[in-house]
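ARCHIVE CARD
CATEGORY: sequence design from structure
SOURCE FIELD: tokenized fold
FIELD CONTENT:
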């Protein structure tokens, strides 16, 4: 009976680690001016974070597979605390890059273990909703964490955000140590075995949908604050409101995406979401300098359709490899983080060499490219169905 509140504790800590990941995009302009680097260079904080998350997490999870889950969660939060400490004490940009790598690995390991623990301590038949609750905490970071970070950075120093997160992570370690029961590790799945799923053409093609979706999204999202401030002419306060509206729309989008997968079918929901996502990014680029009252609804529509894709993609992948769902979702997470890294790199090149406004156009192209593997993947499915 007492387990639901333990799952809520995990969700609250997920919110904390999620905020440390997402908040950077909301305060990128502040960090750039404070560290004396260009916007494009500051954007690479997202690149190194995503690369460390994508590569470091599966390796560490494989190495620590036999470790007690509670101990591993506390170790991940210790790393996370160290990452926040380095961020606060940072004296230059390279030190900040190092801090992002430590934070990424700590967050990645914590999230994987938290989802496993939530499923283990949930009541029979409630595993799915336990996982969804923990993920909701992580996603709430986008809704509340990013605009809150923007407000704090506007009123005080941006390092205050990471001071707060660091202190709260210490409290979280204490609470988790007291409330989460010890649980045995799992049989380790070698990295080679995890990667062997990529040899299945249909799975690797389906995984690439997520890569292009998030690549296009990140090209513009990395630079969202300077884009709204400098291109659309929003005030600092309006940017905070815009980021909050963006977050709420992302939550609605992910809910509708999950519902749509069941109601309208995966192909229609996935391809439809990508088409709208790409089209709205084109509109945002074209109408960027018109009016705040046009941009705010477009910002919400972008977020809605962008985040409708995540749940559909996960359902689709689990359906392809039901017996290896953990591995396929872990691969999906790594590929999405690689897409984020690529998006931040391309976005930086666009800002540096073309213009800040053009990130929307290149983002739209990135998302549209995801439609190609989607169509290819669905056609392979129908052929295999005919054969079977």
């Amino acid at each position: 009976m007492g387990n639901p509140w333990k799952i809520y504790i995990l969700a609250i800590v997920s919110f904390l680690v999620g905020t440390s990941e997402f908040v950077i995009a909301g305060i990128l302009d502040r960090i750039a001016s404070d560290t004396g680097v260009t916007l494009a260079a500051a954007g690479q904080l997202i690149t190194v974070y995503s690369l460390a998350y994508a590569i470091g997490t599966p390796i560490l999870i494989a190495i620590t597979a036999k470790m007690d889950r509670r101990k591993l969660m506390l170790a991940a939060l210790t790393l996370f605390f160290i990452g926040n400490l380095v961020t606060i004490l940072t004296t230059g940009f390279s030190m900040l890059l190092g801090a992002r790598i430590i934070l990424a690995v700590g967050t990645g390991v914590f999230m994987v273990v938290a989802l496993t623990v939530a499923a283990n301590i949930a009541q029979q038949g409630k595993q799915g909703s336990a996982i969804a609750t923990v993920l909701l905490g992580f996603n709430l970071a986008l809704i509340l964490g990013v605009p809150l970070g923007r407000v704090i950075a506007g009123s005080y120093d941006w390092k205050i955000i990471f001071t707060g997160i660091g202190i709260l992570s210490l409290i979280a370690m204490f609470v988790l140590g007291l409330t989460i029961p010890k649980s045995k590790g799992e049989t380790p799945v070698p990295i080679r075995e995890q990667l062997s799923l990529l040899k299945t053409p249909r799975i690797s093609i389906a995984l690439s949908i997520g890569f292009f979706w998030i690549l296009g999204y990140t090209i513009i999202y990395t630079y969202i604050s300077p884009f709204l401030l400098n291109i659309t002419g929003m005030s600092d306060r309006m940017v905070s409101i815009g980021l909050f509206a963006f977050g709420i729309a992302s939550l609605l989008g992910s809910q509708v995406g999950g519902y749509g997968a069941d109601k309208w079918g995966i192909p229609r929901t996935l391809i439809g979401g990508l088409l709208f996502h790409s089209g709205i990014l084109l509109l945002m680029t074209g109408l960027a300098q018109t009016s705040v009252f046009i941009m705010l609804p477009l910002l919400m529509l972008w977020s809605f359709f962008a985040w409708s894709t995540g749940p559909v993609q996960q359902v689709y992948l689990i359906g392809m490899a039901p017996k290896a769902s953990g591995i396929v979702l872990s691969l999906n997470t790594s590929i999405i983080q690689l897409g984020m890294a690529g998006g931040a790199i391309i976005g930086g090149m666009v800002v540096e060499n073309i213009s800040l406004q053009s990130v929307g156009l290149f983002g739209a192209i990135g998302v549209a490219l995801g439609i190609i593997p989607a169509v290819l993947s669905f056609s392979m499915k129908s052929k295999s169905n005919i054969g079977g």
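CARD ANNOTATION: Residues 74 and 174 are 9 Å apart (CA to CA). Residues 384-388 have pLDDT under 50 and may be disordered.
SHELF: design records, drawer C
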